Amino acid sequence: MPLLKKISDDWTPKEFPDVHVGDTIQFDAPYEQLVRTGKAIIVDKDGNELELPGQLFECPVCFVKVEGLKNFTEHVSSHMPKPTVVKTEEKTDKVEKPKVSDDIIAKRLANLAKAREARKLNLENKK
């Protein structure tokens, strides 16, 4: 006993005269023509659409006949190309910091000391 969901105003079942578009009913009468003409769709208990039972689908790649929409989609997806993984080489080159010699450090410290003295004199002259 399939669940049918009414999708067209053109059809009102005799058993359920108060059914509106979007309502789901338990329908025991022949329903294939209703589905094919777009008056109703078959749904599961959660409201998901289903195909007509016993439908055969033909694979467009290998022309095998597969029963059921789920089986068909699984079969066709098996023909899809496998995704290629692009390997990137990891660079192991480490950037080494240049080594600063003691002479350079001494010159920098001397320049900092001179700059401090000049700044101190500037501040005193502004007062």
Characterise this structure.
It contains three helices and six strands. It has helices at about 30-35, 70-75, 100-125, and strands at about 5, 25, 40-45, 50, 55-60, 65. The strands form two sheets. A four-stranded antiparallel β-sheet has the order 2-1-3-4. Strands 5-6 form a two-stranded antiparallel sheet. With about 130 residues, it is α+β, with helices and mostly antiparallel strands. The mean pLDDT is about 85.
Protein traits:
15% strand, two-stranded antiparallel sheet, elongated, alpha+beta, four-stranded antiparallel sheet, 127 residues
Task: Summarize this structure briefly.
The protein is α+β, with helices and mostly antiparallel strands. It has helices at 32-36, 69-77, 102-126, and strands at 3-6, 24-26, 40-43, 49-50, 56-58, 65-67.
Q: In terms of structural class, how would the helical and strand content be classed?
A: alpha+beta
Q: What is the H/E order?
A: EEHEEEEHH
Task: Give the uncertain stretches in residue-range form.
Answer: none
* Subunit organisation of the chains: single chain
Number of helices: 3
**Rg over C-alpha atoms, rounded to the nearest angstrom:** 40 Å
Kindly report the spatial arrangement of strands forming the biggest sheet.
2-1-3-4
Sketch the major β-sheet: 4 strands, antiparallel
Beta-strand percentage range: 5-15%
Total strands: 6
Shape: elongated
Task: For the record, give the distance between the C-alpha atoms at the N and C termini, rounded to a whole number.
Answer: 100 Å
Could you report the average pLDDT, rounded to the nearest whole number? 86
Helical residue percent?
A: 25-40%
